[in-house]
Amino acid sequence: MTETSKNSTENKVSAHELPWFVRGLRDGIPICMGYFAVSFALGITARGVGMNALQAGLMSLGMVASAGEYAAIVLIGSSAGVFEMITTCIVVNLRYFLMSCSLSQKLSPDLPFYHRFLLPYCITDEIFGLSSAVQGWLDPRYSYGMTIISVAGWTTGTVLGVLLGNIMPAWAVNALSVSLYGMFLAIIIPPSRKDRFIAGLVVISMAASGLFSVLPLLREISGGFKVIILTLLIAGAAAFIHPIE
Amino acid sequence: MNPGIYPSLLIMCLTVYCIRMLPFLVFRKEITNRWLRSFLYYVPYVTLAVMTFPAIVTATDNIWSGIAALVVGLLAAWFNGDLFFVAVSCCATVFLTGLFL
Hints:
The structure holds 2 protein chains of 2 kinds.
Chain A: H1 5-13, H2 20-48, H3 53-63, H4 66-77, H5 82-92, H6 94-104, H7 115-118, H8 125-132, H9 140-164, H10 170-176, H11 179-194, H12 196-214, H13 223-241
Helix pairs in contact in A: 2-3, 2-4, 2-9, 3-9, 4-5, 5-13, 6-8, 8-9, 11-12, 12-13
Chain B: H1 5-26, H2 34-52, H3 55-58, H4 63-79, H5 83-100
Helix pairs in contact in B: 4-5
């Protein structure tokens, strides 16, 4: 056993408690349901650019990222080049970098090294949130439990979105096509309510994005590079104007 | 230039994995550079805002139902904030406005 001292003490104190892996499976159920609905819409979007069920399923299994996969679909749809794909993926998924930085601080020094290769796969907004809320060192098996059940829902939803997207009536496809954006709003708006600077940042970002889609010349820039350019400019400037802490 | 769908997926999956994996290998200590920390902190808000607008408005086949979904989504996120609830509110808005438009 290579368990951390903190966790083994915890386990002795509450021996009746479920093992961390099972607790992960249990806490993963609501995440799984939410993921299913969102990834179904993602599947419809993927189908729209000509991806088949296998391709979309592999994408969801390999990437496990809502905004990241949406960007990936846009890139595939626009036949983007390798450089644009890699740079867009880096920029769109930068928040996972930050989350990994944060979660790396919750790993016991005694933890076997291979967990540093497995745990990265589990970093999503929700699993990161629950994993970092654990008291003391994180037992990675908790994250693995959540990941297995939520990725199952995420991948199944994507595949069904591709397969059933075409037999679904137009009104249903229309309705589901906005669910991803709703999820994005749920990530950026609540912090905007608490922090006026972030609210301003969101408004400026949306305005700039709107301008980029209507102004001549700027309109020609592809969706992926628009995200890169605006993120580097606006977040970079924000970090100068208003550094955190 | 474009390598095809499967190679594209492989490249992007590996890129996303590396982004998540590198901090676990490299940053065993906390990042101290203040600008970098601030930049990383602000990135998700800018990225998601840029990706949401104006795309949400043009996502459906009627621009007014898209605008309605944006307004309802903003209100739902402001007053509730639950991921699933906001997503469903936006979908329901498009469905309901679709009955009249």
